[in-house]
Amino acid sequence: MNKTGFFFHADCSLHEMGFGHPESPYRLAAIEQRLQDSGVMAALLRREAPQAPIADLELAHGRMHIASLRGLTDGLRDEMQAGGPKHAQIDPDTRINVHTWDAALRAAGAALAATDAVMAGELDNAFCAVRPPGHHACRDKAMGFCFFNNVAVAALYALERHGLQRVAIIDFDVHHGNGTEDIVAGDARILMASFFQHPFYPFGGTTSTAGNLLNVPVPARTAGDAIRALVSDTWLPRLEAFQPELILVSAGFDAHREDDLGQMALVEADYAWITQQLMEVAARHAKGRLVSCLEGGYKLDALARSVEAHVRVLAGL
Ligand SMILES: [Zn+2]
After folding, report:
1. Residue 253 phi, psi (nearest 5)
2. DSSP character string of 11-69
3. 310 FRET partner, CA 20 to 30 A, in 76, 173, 200, 267?
4. What is the whole-number distance in angstroms between the Cα of residue 1 and the centre of ligand 1?
């Protein structure tokens, strides 16, 4: 059995983007419930996420972007006290409420604290059950339900603050991690590997020429056998050659066949298999160090089952 951290914070459930929005607090509740009911939670080391320090967010984001989210939150609070609306719109899919700033700091803070814990050897690996997600957040722009890029912040933090030389970011969300690409493209210390449904939101990922990106577009309806072949044939050889000292995972579960926000056809066993492959790379090159952060996944039952499958492998259950 591994020492696997489960990072969370109550603030992450206070951020919400309006009635019926798929990126809802119910997602975290469904994950918690499933891990409790299945007995998996008892095997995890629960850690409350701290707030990310602003100086660490600035490793991946511009000062104006950070200040603008804080300013929007303060403005919204003032307006609400004057009887105004509960939300402020960022893009057609993305809104803030008065708790978004705190939730976003906790989500990034979870990734940082988990990185500290695996670097210290206090944990073998960790899963951050946090929201808002991060992989669409660009250096200077919030979009696609994301405000701060939790995984990119953690990657740069591991390089700058822990002195690592090579960090891998793996993204198995159904959507292309355009924000992560925006922040890490051209940084040879980071290898980003992903697959993503294409053509699909956010309609990029196929044109970058940066040598540190291995983002593989796949058509709608792609299922587990094709994804396992893709991982074996493309990701794993690149990871083996790169020899990451830490693996960060943008763990989105919206490529599940039951998820309505994507049209791919993965199942729980595929997430378990991918997780196992990543852990073997981490064992060979990174002393097992792996930090996984929740991204998408919107069909609550499929999300909860997929997270359970992912975390079971992390914990060695
Ligand atoms: Zn997604």
Report:
1. -115, 25
2. GGGT---STT-SS-THHHHHHHHHHHHTT-GGGSEEEEPPPPPHHHHTTTS-HHHHHHH
3. 200
4. 30
- Please tell me whether residue 128 adopts helix, strand or coil conformation: strand
Phi, psi of 190 (to 5 degrees): -120, 130
User: Alpha carbon of 181 to those of 51, 95, 151: distances in Å?
Assistant: 24, 23, 11
229-255: per-residue pLDDT in tens? 999 999 999 999 999 999 999 999 999
Q: Are 172 and 274 in contact (CB under 8 A)?
A: yes
**Could you confirm whether 136 is annotated as catalytic?**
yes
In the reported structure, the alpha carbon of residue 196 is separated from the centroid of ligand 1 by a whole-number distance in angstroms of 9
Of 297, 53, 36, the C-alpha closest to 154 is 53
Cβ–Cβ < 8 Å for 246, 289: yes
For residue 147, the CA-to-ligand 1 centroid distance in Å is 14
Spans of the chain below 70 pLDDT: none
Domains of the chain (ranges, CATH numbers):
4-315 (3.40.800.20)
CA 68 to ligand 1 center in whole angstroms:
24
Which residue out of 9, 61, 65, 136 is catalytically annotated? 136
pLDDT of residue 305: 98
- Rg of the chain on CA atoms, in Å: 18
pLDDT tens profile 158-202 = 999 999 999 999 999 999 999 999 999 999 999 999 999 999 999
